[in-house]
Specification:
Number of helices: 19
Mean pLDDT: 93
Order of helices and strands: HHHHHHEEHEHEHHEHHEHHHHHHH
Oligomer: single chain
Number of strands: 6
Low-confidence stretches: none
Largest sheet: 2 strands, antiparallel
Distance between the termini: 50 Å
Strand order of the largest sheet: 1-2
Structural class: mainly alpha
């Protein structure tokens, strides 16, 4: 079909060039945003006396009719059109005649696509934030439930000190809380309207850009027309934040995969979030966790691709920027899908509290507390460290934990040990005496839970 920009050209675009250049296969995703932006634009044009009231009414009626017909399946978006903007404008002209040709007054496809992408991304930032909020709600509920569920804490994947499941989950709460705050920051920074920037140098029409911005829920208009049509920082920021979300999900998934193994048996993943083996009937595989871990690289790739695309582009708009859409759309779908599935898996997962506690007991996680015990009895820390090292070696040879040794055995290594050692190195004591802010002790955890409850309550307002 004839292009909306065809007046300058004397022959048809090569078919392969047309297909290579066209974007409707993917930019139809922001069809609703294109209609929304166009309606705001013509309302502003009528307010400024650039369109008559009748022209504005006809265009708005035509645009809402197109939207309804597409939504109801009466009108199909097809690839005979170069992009979604061409589809909307061509169908509008078919429906209302010459008045439809005035839709594009004071507007370029450059600022139009900049607006559509910004409106779409702003909506997806909100959706991502909502999914993070749901995940945080689930985590906080689990933290409250498992405030005294003991488990080993790890460094280097080696058992280090006893903690609680609430404390461990709380680390991820902090990660996803930062992710949510990043989404809020992105929203604030991107919430300015590029419409009215024209191709790059504004327009001679007396547009009221502030009015258009207010109609579309923006803080105000963008302040440089060249930057308005060439800015993709907000997409890079979203993809960077999305990559960080996926990194956090991947770390958590890795732990769940380890915890689900026969060697750990800390968790049992619900059947709805697992699959079996086609040949090994005993298998119950953590596929969702593995897919989340795997899809992380996909989102990283989108970020690196857009950064690479943008790094050498001079001002203002260049066609390279069309490459922002497919990879961003895919990353948005990926991170939202992973958040939703991960939250469902987490909510239905069962924790083997007895196995976790036993693992903490058997991993010498109370060795530091045993050393502290000796220090409190007057033994210099370096000597205490050496004594407990010998004690651990003795236990390894014997195949037992420190608290399973008799007092005589303990005294044979250091006469400082007394009966109170057993209480000093119990899991409960090891955890509960850690009461500094952010520590796993029950009182400290309750304070943190209340802080995080308040955080989530403020989000709901």
């Amino acid at each position: 079909m004839a292009q909306l920009w065809g007046g300058r050209f004397t022959k048809e675009t090569d078919k392969l060039v047309y297909q290579f250049n066209a974007s409707i296969s993917f930019d139809q995703r922001f069809f609703h945003q294109d209609i929304e932006g166009s309606i705001a634009h013509v309302v502003m044009l009528e307010k400024q006396g650039i369109l008559t009231k009748q022209e504005k009414d006809d265009i708005v009626k035509g645009l809402t009719g197109i939207r309804e017909d597409v939504d109801n399946g009466i009108l199909q978006i097809t690839e005979e059109y170069e992009d979604i903007h061409s589809f909307v404008e061509a169908n509008l002209i078919d429906r209302i005649g010459d008045a439809g040709k005035k839709l594009h007054t004071g507007r370029s496809r450059n600022d139009q696509v900049a607006l559509d992408m910004r409106l779409y991304t702003r909506q997806e930032v909100v959706h991502t934030e909502e999914l993070l909020k749901e995940l945080l709600d689930t985590l906080l509920a689990m933290m409250e439930e498992h405030i005294d569920t003991y488990m080993p804490g790890f460094t280097h994947l080696q058992k280090a000190q006893p903690v609680t499941l609430a404390h461990h989950l709380g680390a991820y709460f902090e990660m996803f809380k930062r992710d949510l705050l990043r989404m809020q920051d992105i929203y604030k920074r991107m919430n300015f309207c590029p419409l009215g920037a024209g191709a790059l140098a504004g327009t001679t029409y007396p547009l009221d850009r502030g009015y258009t911005a207010s109609l579309l829920g923006f803080e105000g208009p963008t302040l440089n027309s060249m930057d308005s049509v060439s800015d993709r920082d907000y997409l890079i920021e979203y993809l960077a934040a999305a990559s960080t979300i996926m990194m956090h999900l991947s770390r958590f998934s890795e732990e769940i995969i380890i915890w689900n193994s026969n060697e750990y048996r800390f968790v049992e993943i619900d059947d709805a979030y697992s699959t079996g083996s086609s040949i090994m009937p005993q298998k119950k595989n953590p596929d969702i966790a593995e897919l989340v871990r795997g899809k992380t690289g996909r989102v990283y790739g989108a970020l690196m691709s857009l950064l690479t695309t943008m790094k050498g582009i001079p001002l203002a708009y260049n066609k390279d920027m069309q490459e922002d859409k497919e990879l961003t759309f895919d990353a948005i779908d990926t991170v939202k899908g992973c958040l939703a599935l991960f939250e469902g898996m987490l909510k239905t997962m069962k924790f083997r509290e007895d196995v976790m506690a036993k693992s903490a007991m058997n991993g010498f996680t109370n060795a530091t507390d045993a050393a502290d015990y000796l220090v409190n009895k007057g033994v210099p820390f370096r000597d205490a460290h050496s004594i407990i090292g010998k004690l651990v070696l003795y236990c390894i040879d014997k195949g037992c934990s420190i608290d399973e040794l008799s007092l005589d055995e303990l005294k044979s290594i250091s006469p400082v040990f007394e009966q109170d050692i057993y209480d000093a190195i119990s899991l409960k004591t090891c955890v509960e005496k850690r009461l500094t802010v952010g520590a796993p002790g029950q009182d400290a955890m309750r304070k943190v839970i209340e802080i995080n409850k308040s955080f989530l309550e403020k989000l709901a307002k």
